[in-house]
Each structure stands twice: as C-alpha cells, then as structure tokens.
Amino acid sequence: MDASVDSGGGTEEAGGHAHRPDPATGGVVPPIQPSTTFARDSSYETIGTHVYARYSNPGWDAVEETLRTLDGGADALVFASGMAAVVAFFETVRAGDHVVAPSVMYHGAQDWLRRLVETRRIDLTLFDAALPDGLAREVRPGRTAIVWIESPVNPTWDVVDIASAAEVAHAAGAVLAVDSTVAPPVTTRPLDLGADFVFHSATKYLNGHSDVLAGVLVAAGDDDRWTEVRQVRGLLGAALGPFEAWLLQRGLRTLGVRFERCSNTAMAVADRLSSHPMVEAVLYPGLASHPGHEIAARQMTGGFGGMLSILVRGGSAAARLVATSTRVFVPATSLGGVESLIEHRRAVEGPHSLVPDNLLRLSIGVEPAADLIADLEQALGRLAAS
What we know:
This protein is of the alpha/beta class. Helix content is 34%, strand content 15%. The chain has two domains: 16-252, Type I PLP-dependent aspartate aminotransferase-like (Major domain) (Aspartate Aminotransferase, domain 2, 3-Layer(aba) Sandwich); 256-385, Aspartate Aminotransferase, domain 1 (Alpha-Beta Complex), CATH 3.90.1150.10. It contains twelve helices and twelve strands. Strands 1-7-6-5-4-2-3 form a seven-stranded mixed sheet, sandwiched between helices. α8 (255-273) runs parallel beside α12 (369-385). The radius of gyration is 21 Å and the shape is globular.
C-alpha cells in the first residue's frame, strides 16, 4: 500500500512511508542490520552515523521516520516496549513536580506514576475524564509540569477533547502528552490538535500482529525535555531490537486497512450488543448515544477504532463466564491485533483499578463481523441459561 502526504503534512493513506525501496540495493523490503557495534575508518571517525546499538541502529532510522511523518512530529523515538517509553518520558519529572493524569487509564503507566510519588515525591493528581471540566479542575497554573491524557480512555472509552486539554495545559505552563495507542495517526493526530508529545504502545495497532513489544514517543518540537528523553533511552538500555524494528515497519504498511476493518466491525458489534438483554451497556465512542461521540467524531477522523467494552448483567462472575465461553474471541490481555480478544479487565488491573467488576474489554480483529457477533451471542446465551 502506497501513501502520499498532503500539503498540510497529514497522511492520505497510512503506512506508505513504510514502503520505500532500500536505496543501497533497491530491495522493496528493507534489510535488517543486526550489528551491535559499528566500525571506524583509518582516521578513527565513524563510517556512518551509528556507534553502538544501545544509542542508535540503522533499523530505527526508517521506522522512526515513518512514525514521525504519520504523527506529523519533529522527531520520533522507538523503545523496547511501551512501558520503556513511559518510563523514559517520566524520567524528565523532577521531585516536587505536579503531574495530572486520568483516574482511569492504562494501569501500567499509572502504576509507574504512583511509584514516582513514593520514590521521587512527585505530586500526582488523578482527574475524572468522564467530566467535561475534570482536567481543568485539577491543573495548577505555575505548578503543573505535565498533563498526561488518553483519548479514548482505556477501558471505559471516555473521550477527552485533546484541543481543549492542550489549551488548559499550556495556560498553566505545562506540556501535554497524549497516549494515543487506541487512536493511531490514521484516525487521530494529537500534535495537530495542540499536544506536545504523543505516546503509542506500538505493540498494539501500529504493529498489529501481537508479535512485537515496542513503544514510540513523537515530539512536536526539539526541546530540553526531548533531549533528556533521548539520553534516558540510551542510559536505560531501552533499545528496540533490529528485528523488532523491522517487524514494526512491516506492520505499519497495513495499519490503514487493518484499522478501517476493525473500526467497521466494532461498530457492527456495538450496535448489535446495545440491545442484548444480558448487556447493561456498551461503551463505544462510535455510538451516537455515547456521551463523547461528538468530540470523538471531530478528532477521530479515520474511524472510531476496534476497542469497546460491555457491562454484563450479573457482576464479576457473569463477566468471567462470558470471557471463558467464547470460541472466536481469545481470552487474553492486549489489543490492536488481527485476532479478536476478550478480557475481564478488573482482574488484570490490580488493587487500584476503578473499572467495574462486570466490564469486559473487547479488541476487535479482522474476522468477519457476523462470526464475532455470533460468538458473543452464544457466550451471552450461556450466561442467560446459567
């Protein structure tokens, strides 16, 4: 799949920048360079731009340029995992800095912030993303250093207005970082909406095949914080392997078609389950009934994605029964792959979780919509019969 870039810097078709022939050989598929160290010439100057693979690798160059272009940023950095990127970013926080983040968010990132409260004495405030003014209430002008948001919020899929969040953060003298893992740049480009940094767990939609751990940070500009993030990546050894970088680049080539398929199928699933007698509610921003639908429609221009949650009648035990009764959906953690997954989220998140006991998170893959709907209906039917 080829792609072009419009005059405004946006991508008309996603992934095409991952499809450039190797300039050295003309190979349509890029090569892999596994070397961990790089030789110098007779003057002891580096032959190329790389010295040691903990700091840079030829395999990163192409994928970072693809990601920078897709998100419309000034620079991009890849990491060995999403959490490695989160840790590197928050290593820029100083003792006493105030950070604002959602009360419901990716639990790994929140757990790291809670650790920094204990070890570095940062000041952390968690806000309710379901409230239109939830963020504005908690930001402290002149004190807040970082505002970290997700949109949509995992796994309740509340929608945060990114442009408004940027205004609130900047008015307070803070930077805005957006976890856009579930809304990749084929549908949302937070930097265009005023964000300063974008984070993706590239393990999810960007790679899309459940076979790579990777993280990405993209910056709107090159400032002191970004320089420090780059330094921390090298010092932590949070380096993405060359084969993993190659797999990520391969996954990006199909991002657009995968995301479109998942979005269309998720909408069909959400529509059908909205009237199911064993489902209390369907949480999906693509539904017109969703409280954040209007904002989502404005900032998710390429589809509402493949993530939705359902609240099952009967509580935790009922939700677990449904999760273990599916035949097409795989009961497993993660999201954004070509296979459909179902997860009892509360069981995974741990003691700080605010997720309802009866919530099941669904990651819609590329299977036929009819097969996925039939699978969920038979699983919910077992619940009705129990």
